[in-house]
Amino acid sequence: MPAPQKKLIFCTAGLLSLACALGTAAAVGSQLWVRGSVLCSTGALLVNASGPELLKFIGDIQYGLFSGQRVRQCGLGGRPLQFSFFPDLLKIIPASIHVSVILFCAVLIVFALVGAGFFMFNAFGSPYETLHGPVGLYLWSFISCSCGCLIMILFSSEVKIHHLSEKIANFKEGTFTFKTHTEQFANSFWTILVCSLVHFLNALLIRFAGFEFPFSKSKDSGTITGAVDLMY
């Protein structure tokens, strides 16, 4: 492939990596990871609410990695409450999983920036070390994509398996019990998915530029080299 086309591919990949780093950073600070509604089951059972009356006992909840907001509704109107994971909810959430998600987000941001820098370096400079060349570009893209997948897996398990929304809704609730009514992942969670796909796309762009994968080596070259060694 001609050099100008390779530069264009590397510039595109570098800009995509930079956009992923900024998008991940924005997602980390956002409260739009999970949106849903919680039902005050205790209040609904007391008055045997059903149909339209049940809406008076359904509140809203949304949260991210550091903070969120819930609207507590038990038939007397909504009462909004802001909360933070650190240190308020640290005792009731799966702290090890939650901290791991935050750490992998940080790693994803760092390696996305590193990948963007090396893509630009390969576009406008002359690679002179392994980590500056194609092998390094595959490495940064692979690490970033893997971190994005781990973030989604860990956070999904925290929400679905450990019932994170219910734990948040029932935080410091002695009288009423809340159950998850609806729950869905919001924009910031899907941003991480898009970033993971973009890093996978970057690896394909490197291959499209004419560079082989690091683990694929030609058998013919090894045979020829061996034959030459036997001659001497």
From TrEMBL:
Annotated GO CC locations: membrane
Signal sequence, renumbered to the chain: 1-27
Membrane topology: Multi-pass membrane protein
Location within or outside the cell: Membrane
UniProt keyword list: Membrane, Signal, Transmembrane, Transmembrane helix
Keyword Transmembrane helix: yes
Similarity-based family: Belongs to the clarin family.
Record's protein name: CLRN1 protein
Source species: Platysteira castanea
Lineage: Eukaryota, Metazoa, Chordata, Craniata, Vertebrata
This protein's encoding gene: Clrn1
